[in-house]
Write a structure and sequence with these properties.
By secondary structure, this protein is mostly helical. The protein contains 3 helices and 5 strands. The N and C termini lie far apart (150 Å).
């Protein structure tokens, strides 16, 4: 037979155990809930961080592409400028070459049509008074000042308009001297120059003709 005191103690102990069990279960549930919330928060933070990282990556990529576009545009403009400058320079060189060849043709035509009364203005309109020079081979059939001769390379240098006119006059005297006056008392030798333009190189302000 169980006494009432023992029954009371048993009930109290059982109740206490139930309370403790309930508290532990509640605590476990709370911990599990907190962990679940922490995991969700961590996942949410990771997603937010990933979105922010993706956004920053897109912005950096966009900025990089924009810089590349600007660089490409600048390089294209620079290329176009260089192409235009080269084309302009090439056209200028062609124009200069053409003008110099024209001057050379006029010079040869004037040299071939020399006569005693030829005006100096015709020559000075073609040749620079102070800077013109012409190099010719030394020839035994024509007279010229010894000051023009460079013995080392068997050349002579004509300087200035008057020296060129003197050389042309000397050449005319030579041509006149080879005419047989007994047979051709009024005979004259005519000649002309043929300029090979493909073999007329230009270096700076110098031009060589054949």
């Amino acid at each position: 037979m169980i006494s009432s005191d023992s029954a009371t103690d048993y009930d109290t102990s059982t109740t206490t155990n139930k309370v403790v069990t309930s508290t532990v279960q509640h605590r476990l549930q709370t911990i599990a809930h907190e962990r679940n919330l922490a995991a969700q928060e961590k996942l949410r933070n990771n997603r937010e961080r990933n979105r922010e990282h993706a956004k920053n990556t897109r912005m950096r990529k966009k900025a990089y592409v924009e810089r590349l576009k600007i660089t490409v545009d600048e390089l294209c403009r620079e290329r176009d400028t260089l192409v235009s400058e080269r084309a302009t320079s090439a056209n200028l060189m062609v124009e200069i070459h053409s003008k110099r060849v024209d001057v050379l043709r006029s010079l040869f035509a004037l040299r071939a049509s020399y006569h005693v009364n030829q005006r100096r203005e015709l020559w000075s309109s073609l040749l620079d008074e102070c800077c013109f020079t012409c190099r010719l081979p030394v020839t035994p059939y024509q007279s010229f000042p010894s000051s023009e001769v460079q013995v080392s390379n068997c050349q002579r240098t004509i300087v200035g308009v008057d020296a060129m006119m003197n050389d042309v006059a000397s050449n005319a005297v030579f041509l006149d001297s080879i005419v047989n006056r007994q047979r051709y008392p009024k005979g004259k030798i005519k000649f002309h120059y043929k300029l090979v333009t493909d073999e007329t190189p230009i270096a700076g302000n110098q031009l060589m003709a054949r």
